[in-house]
Amino acid sequence: MLERGIEALPAEIERGIEALPAEIERLRLETLAGNEVGRRFYEARGFERDGSSTFEIGTETYPTAIYVRDL
User: Fold this and answer.
1) How is residue 21 annotated by DSSP?
2) Cα distance between residue 59 and residue 64, in whole Å
3) Which GO terms of the molecular function aspect are on file (predicted)?
């Protein structure tokens, strides 16, 4: 749980990753392609761009960036 505010988010994410079962070998996530802050955040934590997709919200379609990180 994020108890110390947004500044604690990177450490909270790393703790969550460390707590994953050993059989988890790779993480995959999507963020909106236009979310430059989010993309830099994930890249700074070892995630690499691995493709793109789209995500529908209501009647709108948005491009996404797919990121992966080997554990």
Assistant:
1) -
2) 16
3) transferase activity
Task: Quote the pLDDT of residue 3.
Answer: 58
pLDDT (tens digit per residue) in 5-33 = 677 888 888 899 999 999 999 999 999 99
| Segment (H or E) for 40 | helix 36-44
Distance of CA 33 to the CA centre of its chain: 12
Cα(60)–Cα(27) distance, integer angstroms: 27
Name the burial class of residue 13, with classes exposed (0-12), middle (13-18) and buried (19+) by CB atoms within 10 angstroms of its CB.
middle
Sheet strands (E) in 1-71? 26-32, 48-57, 60-70
Closest CA to 30 of 9, 5, 11, 56: 56
C-alpha dihedral sign at 49, 52, 56, 60: positive
